[in-house]
Amino acid sequence: MITFGPVPSRRLGKSLGINNIIPPKTCSYNCIYCQVGKTIRKSSEREDFYEPEFIYENVTRHLETAGKNNLPDYLTFVSNGEPTLDKNLGKSVRLLKSTGIPVAVISNASTLYNNSVKEDLGQADWVSLKMDAGDIITWYLVNRPVKGLNFCRMLTEIMNFSSAYSGRLFTETMMVRGFNDSAENVTALAGMINELKPEKAYLSVPTRPPAEKFVKPPDIEKLNLAWQVFNSPKIKTELLTGFEGTETGFTGNIYEDILNITAVHPLREDSLLKLIQNDGADHSVVDSLIKQHLIKMVVYEGRKYFIRDYHKLV
Questions:
Q1: Of the candidates 101, 67, 106, the residue with the CA atom closest to the CA atom of residue 89
Q2: Cβ burial, residue 285 (10 Å; 0-12/13-18/19+)
Q3: For residue 138, how many other CB atoms are within 10 A of its CB?
Q4: What CA–CA distance (Å, rounded) separates 55 from 65?
Q5: 43-57, 71-85, 231-245: segment of lowest average pLDDT
Q6: Residue ranges per domain, the chain?
Q7: E strand or H helix at 178
Q8: Cis bond leading into 210, ω under 30°?
Q9: Residue 134: exposed, middle, or buried by beta-carbon count in 10 A (0-12, 13-18, 19+)?
Q10: pTM for the complete prediction?
Q11: Would you tell me which CATH number, out of the four given (3.20.20.70, 3.40.50.720, 1.10.3210.10, 3.40.50.11270), belongs to the domain 3-244?
């Protein structure tokens, strides 16, 4: 299965996640804070991954398993990489919209120079675009883009997309201590985002284990400054600094549930324990997955998390 959840989302309510990128992680960025880990295949070229019909069949089967009382608010493309690198994303979105559930895509916005990406994203009901940097140096330091991407062109194409998009548009900025939390970067970002006129701008902090151990959330004073600056040009801004909760969706197959969730973000220990309980399993499954090098345990900010171990895929 390539679906997981429904999981509680700070942005989308109850979200059924869809991972449309075949492992290992394939992305146009190698962000220092990424919760999926370091990028293994760095690319900005679109390619074939899963067939849209296969994605649709997996999603509809998962919805049937979840039952009518646990239907998600959104079907969300949130991948172990950049979802727009999937050249069949648009067809998948069209198929999934036939379920009657809105479709969301969370993108890093780096591939919008490609008209086919703009067309595919334009079909989604809800789109979030990553905007972490107000200048090219910060962009390189935080997002570490693949060779060939152009910062100025990316900003132009984000503007072009926002002016044509008729769905719900959001931006998200991940604040990292000492990298993009300066007044200069925050002010430049706020100016750019104000021109986009998104429905809401999210300011996030790392709450799960990041790709680089040196990544830390900004000081509270810097976070408050960012919120104040973003609000001054009348951008509706929300801070995402809390834990979503432990009510992770389950299918009855504990192996698949753990692997599908950890493929796209670390699973906090309390959420994992609740998932094991809901699936009617015991902790031995976790030990087994660790021994098989399918997941591994890490500690971040004093808490235990379980993440995918791509040891066998590299």
A1: 106
A2: middle
A3: 20
A4: 15
A5: 231-245
A6: 3-244
A7: none
A8: no
A9: buried
A10: 0.77
A11: 3.20.20.70
Residue 260 pLDDT > 90, yes or no? Answer: no
pLDDT in tens, 266-292: 677 887 888 788 777 777 878 778 877
Q: Tell me 134's DSSP state.
A: S
pLDDT at 246 > cutoff 50: no
3 state SS for 43-95: CCCCECCCCHHHHHHHHHHHHHHHCHHHCCCEEEECCCECHHHECCHHHHHHH
Q: What is the pLDDT of residues 140-191, one digit of tens each?
A: 999 999 999 999 999 999 999 999 999 999 999 999 999 999 999 999 999 9
Residue-level pLDDT at 241: 61
- What is the CB neighbour count within 10 angstroms for residue 220? 10
Please state at what angle helix 151-164 crosses helix 115-122, rounded to 10 degrees: 40
Cα(125)–Cα(91) distance, integer angstroms? 14
Amino acid at 45: E
Q: Which H helix or E strand runs over 136?
A: helix 136-143
